[in-house]
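Minutes, project check-in
Item: structure for the 278-residue chain
Input as provided by the requester:
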Amino acid sequence: MRRWLVTLVRAALDEDIGQGDITTNATIPEKVRCEATLLAKQNGVLSGILAFRAVFDCLDAEITDYHALADGHRFAKGDIIARFQGYTRAVLMGERVALNFLQHLSGIATTTARYVAAVEGLNVRLCDTRKTTPLLRQLEKQAVVHGGASNHRYALFDGVLIKENHIVGAGGIAKAVQGAERVTHHLMKIGVEVTNLDELEQAIEAGADAVLLDNMGIDEMRQAVERVRGLDVILEASGNITLERLRDVAATGVHVVSVGALTHSAPAVDISLEIANV
């Protein structure tokens, strides 16, 4: 099990269990074992099964006879997602934390799959953003991939994206790009966020490798696509990208569409854990 995942799961368990599960310790004998069944209450795409299992391993549940679907698997209402045996106390103490991880991450994968389906047949890459839950970014970005989309930059350290406040602070697009060029190497692209076609022109003239079209209208995006035709410039659309609007945005010809809602607004998938004594 990866160290970062163990650290995350142990912190989540400490938050929920604290000094001990009063109810479980009072009602369940110490060495009783159970069979647990994880059931889907709706259709969805699975993500977070490794975190789910890690919860019970961290609680020393001594899991046996473990069978589970893999991340990225599409399941239907009524499907058994996982089944295993373990100490009942540990299963009950970890149930809520394990489900919180699994329901949230499967919700991201399921939402992402809907967005991916909406652009089927179009030559566009669908990406997430950095609008993730603090400390859950790695799991949430994995969930986006499980849903069929791609990841944007992971964090501030692995990509250059000059945004509105950078431009203001630097004194303009050209100065911001020049500053970025001084600290980047020849394999790193420089991206610039723009809000209109005039700023797009400035970004192109400054030598931007990628331009993020922020909250532009459909017609303006089409004009931006025509402007960069034949140039080695990547166009990304972002801002107010709803599921209903997504296909129209993608059909403008932009190369990438980034959607914050994949991670910050995905509803949890309804999954339940049921036990039986063994």
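Outcome recorded: The CA atoms of residues 67 and 99 lie 16 Å apart.
No further action items on this chain.
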